[in-house]
Design a protein that fits this description.
The radius of gyration is 22 Å and the shape is globular. The protein folds into 2 domains: 6-142, Rossmann fold, CATH 3.40.50; 148-394, no CATH class. The strands form 2 sheets. A 7-stranded mixed sheet has the order 7-6-8-9-10-11-12, with helices on both faces. A 5-stranded parallel sheet has the order 2-3-4-1-5, sandwiched between helices. Helices cover 44% and strands 18% of the residues. It has helices at residues 6-16, 33-43, 61-78, 96-109, 124-130, 148-155, 159-165, 178-198, 207-219, 227-231, 240-252, 282-286, 292-296, 299-321, 360-368, 383-387; strands spanning 22-26, 48-52, 83-88, 114-120, 138-142, 256-261, 275-278, 324-330, 333-341, 344-351, 372-377, 381-382.
């Protein structure tokens, strides 16, 4: 792939600098982490060894030691000043972080200029590995789902296609065969993420419930649904704490998140009912019986698709933009999205299809005095133009 994502430049910059930190590259499945590393190795003059734990079924952390020692020997024999060891799918080996810590520290002590890149297809590797064993020894590059601009530049897809088919580059070739496309999203992405990235790496007492939470949350994307009301629609639901925990895991895995209600008092935000939001609209479309042509003819459902696409765009760009995403509601009045960066606040209303603006924004403006208020949709700032923007530029 000739298209180069912005993360490639950052990775190249960090590796070219003197050895100081392990570089950890993580993100959801099928967004091009391995492709990006291959682009990097094709462009660098530094010798490297690329290995994948995905090919080491049944291996232990001894395998990591073997690969690390191989890299050390190749560095020594090459008489070069530096060498790069790249380990893909590192989280699949139990106890990997303690082993990496031991080997990295040994090289630091012995002045071995072996630079290391770790790749993981799930952010769950961060929770149990990097934060605990490798604190202070790594830098993180968190890759996000592909934006519309990236998908448009690389594949030429339209805004409408992006809103429905989402931002998985590997699925583009199936877009003309929608049933095949849906099967790919359901099996190669959704099921693979839940079964391999979540259930295999974290103890889940009720895996069937985890899948139910995901499916119901996806159906309710761009809608507010409390955990207590969700219990009534789930079988063997347990309690709200369980559902909240599963949502956090689905969030870290890059599938589904819960946007919290905006309050002036920050401590109250965590106790609010979430606004469910898919991180890639393909996840929503793949679970519906509706086709792309059919949804374009349904203003109400298409409106949900557009709002969900706007929400995914805001959430996926939030870490790089260093802003937070909320919603606001009081009785029947609602503001679809509220952005906060430091002390600056922006209210965003999304209206498309047959929906009309409500009094929610006026009440929100009176109550919180936001720095900006925006109307995004078919009027105001067109939703197509908004998808081309970096939301951080609004501040």
């Amino acid at each position: 792939m000739k298209f180069k994502r912005v993360y490639l430049k950052e990775l190249s910059k960090r590796i070219s600098a003197p050895r100081k930190f392990i570089q950890a590259l993580t993100g959801p499945r099928q967004i091009g982490k391995t492709t990006l590393v291959k682009q990097f190795t094709n462009s660098t003059d530094i010798l490297f060894l690329y290995v994948s734990a995905d090919e080491s079924h049944g291996m232990t952390n001894v395998w990591i030691e073997q690969m690390w020692e191989t890299a050390r020997i190749r560095l020594k024999n090459s008489q070069e000043k530096e060498f790069i060891l790249i380990i893909d799918e590192i989280q699949k080996i139990k106890g990997w972080s303690d082993t990496v810590k031991f080997l990295w520290d040994a090289d630091t002590f012995n002045n071995v200029n072996l630079k290391v890149i770790l790749l993981g297809s799930s952010g769950l590797m961060l929770q149990e590995g990097l934060h605990e064993s490798l604190a202070g020894r790594y830098e993180l590059i968190e890759m996000q789902h592909w934006s519309f601009t990236e998908m448009n530049q690389c594949f030429g897809i339209s805004e409408e296609e992006y809103a429905w088919f989402g931002g998985y580059p590997g699925s583009v070739s199936f877009m003309n065969e929608e049933e095949r496309w849906k099967d790919y999203i359901r099996n190669s992405l959704i099921e693979a993420t839940i079964s391999k990235d979540v259930l295999m790496l974290t103890r889940i007492d009720k895996p069937a419930l985890m899948r139910q939470v995901f499916e119901l949350g996806v159906v309710y994307t761009s809608k507010i649904l409390s955990f207590s009301k969700m219990l009534g629609q789930l079988q063997d639901a347990g309690n709200t704490t369980t559902i909240s925990h599963y949502l956090k895991l689905l969030d870290v895995a890059g599938l589904l998140t819960g946007i919290q209600k905006f309050y002036a008092e920050k401590y109250r935000e965590r106790s609010s009912s979430p606004k469910w939001q898919v991180k890639n609209t393909a996840l929503y479309s793949a679970l519906l019986p509706t086709t792309f042509e059919q949804v374009l003819m349904d203003p109400v459902q298409w409106g949900q698709v557009i709002e969900s696409a706007i929400g995914a765009h805001l959430v996926n760009m939030s870490k790089a933009g260093k802003y937070e995403v909320f919603y606001w509601r009081h009785k029947n009045e609602e503001v679809d999205f509220v952005l906060r960066k430091d002390d600056a606040v922006i209210g965003i209303e999304v209206k498309s299809g047959l929906t009309k603006p409500t009094k929610g924004m006026a009440t929100f403006k009176e109550k919180f005095d936001p720095d900006k208020v925006l109307l995004v949709g078919t009027s105001g700032l067109h939703w197509k133009d908004f998808l081309r923007m970096d939301p951080a530029d609004l501040f």
